[in-house]
Design goal:
59% of the residues lie in helices and 4% in strands. The protein is mainly alpha-helical and 325 residues long. A 3-stranded mixed β-sheet has the order 1-3-2. Helix 5 packs across helix 15 and helix 11 packs across helix 12. The longest helix has 31 residues. It is globular, with a radius of gyration of 25 Å. The N and C termini lie far apart (74 Å).
Length: 325
């Protein structure tokens, strides 16, 4: 400490023999915490691992507020989804029931759009998590995309009730419980669930996307403190793809509805009273928490004031018939 003070005193003494402008410059540099080179901001989109993993107390508060706002929007929205625990309490619904038929028509109409959104989202996530840099990695992603593009059918099923599922030995069909079909009353909600199932198909029997699932789960676990391993990692990742696909759909399709309401539809079926989990799934509300923790900017959009969060202009043209219910 004494040596340091003497060094500073010597330096200030020497400044007396320098020109005034040069002395001022040297003092300013000595007091500046970082050089301009150290402060240089990358503009090519690359960020350090530490930057990607940063999650502050303020972020945590935003996530919790966004969960509350999502579930509040569900109570206000005439096209909100039924909560999962409400679906479970309902009697089975025949395939010919009008609500199930309307849900099936919606699913069939948005399936082509969902396929496209899922393929672009998988590539985006693979790049974000640094899993797209080698030829082998790109080959796995390309194979996953090919499996998504091969899906052509949504099959209603009474026994599946409030679930949707896929059989990897028959990867061109998504089986959809009739109660679930009836309970998802918006395009945003339907796209999020279809995208979830398409992501299972994308990974396939070869578990092509397993490295991506693990990377997403690690980040979510770090930010939430939740245990997210094994099948839970895959289920959460599929939910993330579903949320991102719905968000992109919202960007592409204009609407006079508030943006927070449309975003909430992608996850509000998780706004349950009976918040139970199992070995393969996080609880519904923990799922929302993990999703918003993975994308705090989206949680912020959920909290946007209705007067500033209304219309998102499309990035390309659209056909009005595509938007009809």
């Amino acid at each position: 400490m004494i040596r340091e003070r003497r060094a500073r005193a010597t330096a200030m003494f020497k400044l007396q023999y320098l020109s005034l402008p040069l002395a001022i410059l040297l003092v300013a540099q000595a007091l500046t915490p970082l050089s301009f080179g150290q402060r240089r901001v990358s503009r090519n989109g690359a960020h350090s691992s530490a930057e990607r993993e940063a999650f502050t107390a303020a972020d945590r508060r935003v996530v919790e507020r966004a969960i509350g706002q999502t579930c509040t929007e569900r109570t206000r929205d005439p096209f909100s989804s039924m909560a999962i625990d409400e679906m479970q309490a309902r009697p089975s619904l025949p395939v010919a029931h009008p609500d199930a038929v309307a849900g099936l028509r919606r699913a069939e109409r948005v399936l082509p759009t969902t396929r496209r959104l899922v393929t672009s989202t998988i590539v985006q996530l693979a790049k974000e998590y640094d899993l797209y840099g080698t030829a082998a990695a790109r080959s796995r992603v390309d194979a996953a995309i090919a499996r998504v593009e091969a899906v052509r059918r949504v099959k209603p099923d009474v026994d599946s009730r409030d679930n949707a599922s896929v059989l990897l030995r028959e990867p061109r069909t998504i089986e959809f419980g009739t109660i679930f079909l009836a309970g998802l009353r918006s395009d945003e909600a339907m796209i999020s669930v279809l995208a979830h199932e398409l992501t299972h198909i994308a990974s396939g029997q070869a578990d092509s996307l397993r490295p991506l699932f693990r990377a997403i789960a690690r980040r979510a676990a770090t930010r939430t403190g939740l245990r997210i391993q094994g099948q839970r990692a895959e289920e959460l990742s599929c939910d993330l793809v579903g949320l991102m696909a719905a968000r992109e759909f919202i960007k592409e399709t204009p609407s006079w509805e508030p943006l927070p309401r449309r975003l909430a539809r992608a996850v509000e079926h998780n706004c349950v009273d009976d918040d139970a989990s199992d070995d393969d799934h996080l609880s519904p509300r923990s799922t929302i928490r993990a999703l918003f923790a993975l994308d705090v900017s989206l949680a912020g959009e959920i909290l946007a004031d209705a007067t500033t969060g209304w219309l998102r202009l499309p990035q390309r043209g659209f056909n009005r018939s595509e938007l009809a219910l």
